[in-house]
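Recall the central idea of this unit: under ordinary conditions, the amino acid sequence of a chain determines the structure it adopts. In this exercise we apply that idea directly, starting from the sequence alone.
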Amino acid sequence: MDYVLETSGRRHVLVANRFRELVNEHIFTPSYWMARDALGDPLGGRGSAWRIQDSLQGETIDWVLRNYLRGGMVRHLVHDRYFFSGLEKTRPWCEFMLLLEMRDQGLPVPEVVAARIDRGALSYRGSLITATLPGESLTARVLAGKLADPVWQAVGRTIARFHQAGIWHADLNANNILLDLSASEPDIHLIDFDRARRRDIKPDWQQANLDRLLRSLEKETRDEPSAAARVTTGWAMLKKGYSGQG
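Accordingly, the structure predicted from this sequence is:
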């Protein structure tokens, strides 16, 4: 087994075996890292994620800590609690396990460090820690300038690998695709697998996933005509890579 489950009262912590010696009761608390001067600026929306750079027990760490927060209108009523219907149905548990499985399959996803579930009477709060990945989001790269056709094709091939493995990404958008172009070959990763799951391989949800990504790219570039034009031509290359033609 690649992980351990540690339970204390109503708190449950999943830890990947490789990180067992580095995990303590404080690592899910931003104030702990702030006191160590290791907490970076918030990442993403709603202030739910932070980059952590520090040294623990002589090992340099570069992690992302993310708290599960509500979105949509319900966030005004319930900020960070979810209905508890079983430990193995909680969002941190599901994402932690899926990341482990995908890494075992060789899919390009972040290495998972640990997850925490804090139970109440009928609800829970959750957090997840993953290793930081190099690179910039697809959004940032498109806004910064033209991406070469082979990069767009590599993005398409990467998405196809997940779809061929039956992985449905609940929020496949341009900010959840990371590109590291520092090497001769582009290194592409997908991130943020909250609510993702395995599904029977069918073209309907796969196409819906791609449609969601295209809407995201169009939204991110709608105020930048030159970037929007790059998306139009780049998308054709992405589809080419996705279909195995490039």
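The chain has six helices and 13 strands.
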